[in-house]
Amino acid sequence: MFRSLxxxxxxxxxxxxxxxxxLSIALIAxxxxxxxxxxxxxxLYEREVSIIGRLVSLGIITHDDVAxxxxxxxxxxxxxxxxxxxxxxxxxxPPGSFEFSDGAFRSKVIVIASLSSITLxxxxxxxxxxxxxxxxxxxxxxxxRLDALMNGRYxxxxxxxxxxxxxxxxxxxxxxxxxxxxxxxSVNFERDKMRGFISFISHELKTPLxxxxxxxxxxxxxxxxxxxxxxxxxxxxxEDIERMEWLIGDVLNVxxxxxxxxxxxxxxxxxxxLAKDVARRYSEIAKSKSLKISVxxxxxxxxxCDERWLSQALDNLVKNAVNYSPDGGTVSINxxxxxxxxxxxxxxxxxxxxxxxxxxxxxxxxxxxxxxGSRKGTGLGLALAKAIIERHDGDxxxxxSTEKGSIFAIELPIRQxx
Length: 418
Fold this sequence. Notes:
Helix Hairpins; about 425 residues; 11 helices; alpha+beta; single chain; Heat Shock Protein 90; two-stranded antiparallel sheet; five-stranded mixed β-sheet
């Protein structure tokens, strides 16, 4: 019990103060008793001298008798004197004439002991009250902080510095507060993200579904519809179906990668070769827009990766660059490396990304102001690329963006296959 009590620094300080004050009170009491004893002894001495002087004055004893009395001490003298003094009220117990001196001394002792005890009792009662008040204040503050946490208020903070259980509990509550705050921030972020997801999916699916429903009704009712119009309707239906498949596929891929549901098959691969394969996929689209796609590698950059998924991340970057670059422009893919990392950049000559869009550009379903109104993307390409790169322990970021284009940079660690 005492060990747990004295783990608190403030309790140790209060206890030391109490002990010091108690010792001071005890020392004062001892000194007072000592002085009282001296005073009592002096009083008895003066009384004895006065009695002897009275006997000499009455002629009962002489100076020689005094010398003999002081030099000799016999027990039979006490018995003889007591027998002689019995008619005057003297017995083996002190007579009333002695009550004054002994009673005064006893009274002093009682007063000193009483005052010392009362002072010590008041002192320790005050110190214990102080300790109890501090503990009560801490419990009250802790109760208020826990109540604030239960009501979703995380800005109340009370720090108890020092040692002991109080400081430990306070630190744990502060840590719990910060953790709950971060958890709620994450929950709110995910909730807002889910709202945006539902809103986006609802909007993106509503349009093609409504179009499919309308065209399907027209095809059913249009018995005499010309073949060319039917083929146009079927072509548009196919595009809408393809777009929905594309959208649903991207949503599922992002969700599966972020949740860790996809197991990556890592092996060594040449980053430059992966980039060239991606560039070849868009060669026909580039030709139709008179675009030039160039791939430049300063040196061999072998990385440990899942080729399929890393190609998907590169594909999303190159697809955006091709889609948003003007006719006759250039899309550049450059690879270089350091001792520990391989770097790949994709540079386009598109409209660029506004400064206000930069912090959100890798969020799911977010489309920058330059892409508003365009049906070229779902807002998931960069989010999917980011999720893939992070699963490779790498990083992807918007390196720079101006009105004449953007540069996206991928950083991947170079490590040996385990």
